[in-house]
Amino acid sequence: MTRPSRRQLLRVGGLSALGLGLPALLQARSPAAPAGRTPERSCIFVVQYGGCSHIDSFDPKPDAPAETRGPYRAVPTRVPGVRLAELLPRLADRADRFLLVRSMTHRDPGHDGGMHVAMTGHSNPTADTPYLGSVVARVRPAVRNVPSYVWLQNLAGDVQPRYLGGGFLGPAYGPLRVGTDLDNPAAPGFRVRALDPAADVPHARMTVRNELLNRLDPRPTSAGPEAALRGFQERAADLLTGPDTRRAFDLNLEPVGVRDRYGPHPLGQNLLTARRLVEAGVRLVSVTAWAGTPRGEAFKNVQTWDMHGEGAGLGSMFGTGAYGLGWALPNLDQAVSALLDDLAIRGLLESTLVVVVGEFGRAPRVDRAGRDHWPACYSALVAGGGVRGGRVYGASDRAGGYVKDDPVSPERFAATVLHALGVPPETRLGADRFTRPASTGEPILDWFA
Length: 449
Hints:
Elements: H1 6-17, E1 42-47, H2 66-69, E2 74-76, E3 83-85, H3 89-92, E4 98-104, H4 111-120, H5 132-139, E5 149-152, E6 176-178, H6 203-216, H7 225-241, H8 244-249, H9 256-262, H10 266-280, E7 284-288, H11 325-345, E8 352-357, E9 361-362, E10 373-374, E11 378-383, E12 391-393, E13 395-396, E14 403-405, H12 410-420
Parallel strand pairs: 1-7, 1-8, 4-12, 5-6, 5-7
Antiparallel strand pairs: 2-3, 4-11, 8-11, 9-10, 13-14
């Protein structure tokens, strides 16, 4: 067996020699990237983890029996004939900016399985099927010196931590995750620690190590794996010592009035962070839509939308506690409305796809002041990224329990998101460039202008 040369060892160990543990930040342009001119778009993907009740938010049923329609009135929006629940007045006033999808559907009622289906865009994903963010990071990575894929706020323990990896694409295409439980940008003194070097490698020492590596292993002059790896090393050092990514995460650079418009809760401050990240060049930012806890209420977990009511000991889903729509929906209304306004003002809405969706909806019957998991029919909000607003796509039946018109499967939804981001769904991701398409669905072209 041939022993590796000193140069080979340096090439393999160069990243660890620098004290770098950030593979998610080091994506290079993939040879699988589609040829031709495609739009340079980003995505802010807001995940309503736990499953938001579509009937009490985006798809109200005012003519249904009381045990179905719930306590909230349906109010008119800026778009004639389209109504939302009364706890979403800001979004109602901006309905011309987004598309409502009222016919999302799949078959998995569990948090873990449902999340894996919804975030991979596959009705029957394998354990290693990557999330959409990893696919985008692989095929349409960031072109500036920032991460391609960031996830803001953790998902709680009811799901396996698949969202932190890259599936079969490998860990290099997993997200940089920032924010865990109470450690989030709404908390006083919050600081992003994900970009810190290893504890025993301060910036000064890392700089010395990088200079030493340059002397021992000069940058290759020809293209190929050696040049690509050396590029990874240089980019990693730039990410840790350079200002771009750190500046994008620094909310102290935002005017107080802007921060206030988004709201003083984790969802608001995370969405403001997401706007700063896409503005800096991050390709896809997933945001767990945790609204935090009301003042004086003890923190339990981040399942804001898992509203089973009194049967789960969480109180009524129609209350104003952390697990009540009276708390969660106004915060969502404030934060998403501020995001849409901000993107429009900055000229970023056309180049930024905004998605708001959970792993499923909620049952059409209220039971013990809550609603159970319901994947058969639920809703999503989609804006920007070339999507034509002021419309509704698909319809549920009278009770909101099943799709009536134009069902949107996980495959169709994923294909449409990828299409908006310039990724042809048929793009092959596997090593053989054949067996692993980015999506098996067909994009819904009617969503676009």
